[in-house]
From TrEMBL:
List of residues that carry 4-aspartylphosphate: D516
Species classification: Bacteria, Pseudomonadati, Planctomycetota, Planctomycetia, Pirellulales
Keyword line: Kinase, Phosphoprotein, Transferase
Chain spans, region Disordered: 1-26
PROSITE patterns noted in UniProt: RESPONSE_REGULATORY
Superkingdom field: Bacteria
Keyword Hydrolase on entry: no
Pfam families, A to Z: GAF_2, Response_reg
Organism encoding this protein: Roseiconus lacunae
Segments forming domain Response regulatory: 463-585
Record's compositionally biased regions (Polar residues): 1-19
Protein name in the entry: Response regulator
Keyword Kinase: yes
Length: 601
């Protein structure tokens, strides 16, 4: 049988001394490992100088003996060439592996560590072999329930893992698995991955979620004690705090979208030039910068270099990059949030992700604040309505009685007439004061949901007299018409109505008079003819139940100037009442332009 020598793991085949003579024995003498039969050695060696092994797989276990100088492997016990080449390549791969790798003994001591692991823990110059893995890593803190994944792997014979945090603030994911099939295992192979960025991202994401929950987290006591403006300022302070301290954004601008006009109203600006903060921007993709584009498209925009971006309009003079995210709730754009930096490409995709997440929380916070404001408006409006409803009818009674008493004194006692006129004025002021208080208490317009505040501007401040024997009809007139800003007064019949119209004067004249066709004294047509002696034309609307008109009041009224559309059939809907009132107002000279002019004056 032909024998040959072969190197294994960079160990010399035989001693570097004179190969013509056997190695010396005794203390301090070098020895040789022989894998195979002793007779396969090319020279004669004393048996005591040779350590004979059956397999090359056990060589590494013996190389820790400092007296071993070389290894001889018989050809028939050499690994296959491909296996040998694989072992060499595996060694190179482990050495240059992009993650840390190490071999540990049963006492967690490092037997070998690759370059990456040694570089991470400053062991490039010093040899970590012999140190425990904990000493090599600088005695890190172990996170989680498993206080020693290496002990777990040795004990169970299964893979185990853990997360280590070093004093420098780095996080490492460590996995340990037994080597070989021995039970219990004697060695562990470990891999170490740097997960610092991943952990920090998770912590930042959790902090953003906490911050989002706290944005509008107002306790009942705070809601009770704080006004709307104070809540808005608190929300702005929280947003500013989290954007600066949590997301590290220094230049910030938030704008809210006015749905009706498309105007982007400035809400918050930090580090923005005043001229830029006051700039008028609209939700339009052209001429309104990146903010206008984001608001109109509902998409985020990451600008790496503002000089090469045609959409960009600077918020500060030295801006070089920006990040703009729309505030969206239920697929509706509420506004935009924009941050800028003096550095080129200062913002990453991660920044975009974090800002989009926080933008959702801001949208929810704004919606919560809006709901609180709406709830306050609704509560205040209901309170005012309740007060007004309780006062309106008694005040009307005062007006009716006062006007009738004044009729008796006209021409006889000017002093008494003046006193009664003051009573009338005060009674009317009571109702108007309640309405004004309600408007001041409610930051929202007191109109039904879904109706634009300016949709019925023609009705605002118009004086309407309702004449009907049914108290329910008179109460409904107050409730339905006053929500649109009308000033409503009522009378039970024609006897009260005629003097109220006669004594109204120019200051309190009625813009519309609504009357039932059947009154206690006489018909609605007869009332119209008596009023025609006082005012001409009469802005009259006649009501009838289910078209019932035994005296042909409506037909006669139409022949004497009643507007063709000035009719209501009970029971009527609110929209029918509003349409007929608007028709009469327009027919007798009131226009939306007049309403707008009077409002501006």
């Amino acid at each position: 049988m032909t024998q040959s020598t072969s190197s294994f793991d960079a160990v010399n085949e035989i001693s570097q001394g004179d190969q013509s003579r056997p190695a010396e024995t005794g203390a301090g003498k070098k020895r040789l490992i022989c894998v195979g039969e002793l007779s396969s050695l090319p020279r004669d060696y004393v048996e005591d100088d040779v350590l004979v092994l059956d397999s090359s797989a056990t060589v590494l276990d013996q190389l820790s003996d400092q007296s071993i100088e070389g290894v001889w492997i018989a050809r028939d016990l050499l690994p296959e060439l491909g296996e040998l080449r694989g072992l060499c390549q595996s060694g190179l791969m482990l050495r240059d592996f992009p993650e840390g790798a190490a071999l540990l003994d049963q006492k967690n001591r490092v037997l070998w560590a690759n370059r990456r692991l040694r570089r991470w823990f400053d062991k490039v110059e010093s040899d970590p072999v012999g140190d425990t893995i904990y000493e090599m890593m600088g005695n890190p803190e172990i996170l989680g329930s498993d206080l020693c994944p290496f002990h777990t792997a040795f004990t169970t014979g299964e893979e185990s893992s853990g997360t280590f945090q070093t004093e420098s603030g780095h996080y490492y994911q460590v996995r340990a698995a037994p080597v070989g099939d021995q039970s219990p295992p004697t060695q562990l192979v470990i891999t170490v991955g740097d997960i610092t960025e991943e952990i920090l991202q998770q912590q930042k994401l959790a902090a953003i979620h906490r911050a989002g929950r706290e944005l509008a987290d107002l306790r009942p006591s705070e809601i009770f004690q704080m006004g709307v403006d104070e809540r808005i300022e608190l929300l702005k302070d929280n947003i500013r705090h989290y954007l600066q301290d949590l997301l590290n954004f220094d230049v910030i601008e938030i704008r809210l979208l006015e749905q009706a006009t498309g105007y982007l109203l400035p809400l918050l600006s930090v580090g923005i030039d005043q001229e830029a903060a006051d700039r008028q921007l609209y939700a339009h993709p052209h001429g309104n910068g990146i903010t206008g584009y984001a608001a109109s498209s509902g998409t985020s925009y990451l600008c790496y270099d503002v000089i090469n971006d045609p959409l960009f309009i600077p918020g500060v003079a030295n801006s070089r990059s920006s990040l703009t995210v729309p505030l969206i709730l239920n697929d509706q754009v509420l506004g935009t949030i924009n941050v800028e930096s003096p550095q080129i490409a200062a913002f990453t995709e991660s920044d975009l992700q974090f800002l989009e997440i926080f933008a959702r929380d801001i949208s929810y916070a704004l919606n919560t604040l809006e709901l609180l404001v709406a709830q306050k408006a609704d509560t205040a409006q209901q309170s005012c309505n309740a007060i007004h409803s309780a006062v309106a009818m008694p005040v009307d009674e005062i007006l009716n009685d006062a006007v009738n008493v004044m009729e008796d004194y006209i021409g006889h006692s000017p002093e008494m007439v003046d006193r009664i006129r003051r009573i009338l004025k005060n009674a009317r002021d009571i109702k108007q004061t309640i309405q004004q208080i309600g408007q001041r208490m409610t930051p929202l317009e007191a109109v039904p949901p879904g109706i634009s505040p300016n949709e019925h501007a023609l009705l605002r401040d118009k004086r309407i007299l309702v004449v009907d024997e049914d108290a329910t009809v008179r109460e409904d007139a107050h409730r339905l018409l006053e929500r649109y800003g009308c000033i409503v007064e009522t009378a039970r019949g024609a006897v009260q109505a005629v003097p109220m119209v006669r004594d109204a004067g120019d200051e309190n004249k009625y813009d519309v008079i609504i009357s039932d066709i059947k009154l206690p004294e006489y018909s609605g047509f007869q009332l119209m003819m008596r009023l025609k002696e006082l005012i001409d034309p009469v802005p009259m609307i006649l009501m009838t139940g289910f078209g019932y008109d035994p005296g042909h009041s409506i037909v006669n009224a139409l022949q004497n100037g009643l507007h063709p559309k000035a009719r209501l059939y009970k029971p009527f809907r609110l929209d029918q009442l509003i349409d007929v009132v608007k028709t009469v107002l327009e027919a007798y000279g009131a226009t939306p332009e007049d309403a707008d002019d009077s409002e501006s004056n």
